[in-house]
Sequence to fold (440 residues):
Amino acid sequence: MRATDVIARKRDGEELTTEEIRWFVKGYTEDRIPDYQAAAWLMAVYLRGMTRRETFDLTVAMAESGDRLDLSPVIPYAVDKHSTGGVGDKVTLVALPLVAAAGVPVAKMSGRGLGFSGGTLDKLESIAGYRVVLSDDEILRQVREHGIVLCGQTRSLAPADGKFYALRDVTATVSSLPLIASSIMSKKLAAGANAIVLDVKVGVGAFMHQIEEARELAQIMVDIGVSAGRRMVALLSDMNQPLGQAVGNALEVREAIETLRGGGPADLREHCLTVAAHMLRLGRQDTAPDAFERARADVLGVLESGAGFAKLRELVEVQGGDVRMVDEPDRLPRARLQEVIPVPRAGFAQQVHALHVAQATLELGAGREKKEDSIDPAVGVIVHCKVGDRVEAGQPAFTVHANDEARLARARGHLERALVVGDEESAPLPPFYATIYGDD
Ligand code: URA
Fold:
């Protein structure tokens, strides 16, 4: 087989065979196919698309390009979750302990943030000492003994995706549905999940801006999972405004702790309960008609009893984190400067623009523009309004947590554009737009 032939066939809109896709992925992973040919192939895929069969083959080829985590000795039926990335999305920090506390063990590998979307690992690292790098043996032992693991992706998991993703990033080929779907699902398949809950974000603070586009991405991922023998649920959730109030690493950990203690913003609490209930239902392999309602009642029970909070505490302790930061969140990193930005006029909040809020937090140093950038765990923004709220002039719109005056001034510029207040009443945004099931 020759790389130029595979590239040419895709360039001309033909459907590649399973063998061609496997050969190309293997060749690129093993450095026999150079970046310039892989780049040409990615652009051909970007422009011509892929059939469902090709997308599935690409996913499996990438999932099989490295090690696979076998959780079966410790979790007979493993459930995982994945978010396509949003602003203020700290759902994993809440949902995972709830599921584990409700009796289904969970081992999740999370990623770091890049660009406007935050990453769970960065959030966790605002807890002093928390170890995100665990060996496979440590993961298995911890699941057996504690029923919960939350760590980083090991380098050997789906290495083909790591290589392709870095190339896509610099060749303007990221935003292709088959490439995104295969990238996400290859890592999930390699991480050993039997069932997966996907939280597909849609809106101005997400990859996908339109519901129909997000629905298509979700359906492609659900189909890949089902073809691979996994049970799947995909939620299409709103990302036009930030989720919860806190955006920024330590601020989000604090909000997750508050939520597990029974407080926290209502939208975040509801979102976490829904994701956790889907995970619990799938993890129990419960297909009864009322399985979701019972799972939701159970995750609500462990939230209200404090068992979910105790599970987070246990997780932090066993992974070496300073558990005093969980008990007393005031000990989490705190920024030197705090400034309240007021609501400019009375009316109704029409827009709390997630991307502008994300850009403000990036300016403050909470995220990365490039992979190598370091982040400041303490900085971020607290968002005091939700779309649909009635607001008065002068009430707090945002509280900015900053460590640098110049950065604070730039963040203020973004935030002043983020909140749009009008005279017309505005309906609150729905938390979810749709649920797609692939688990019959
Ligand atoms: N997240 C991934 O892991 N891959 C993509 O291509 C996009 C988002």
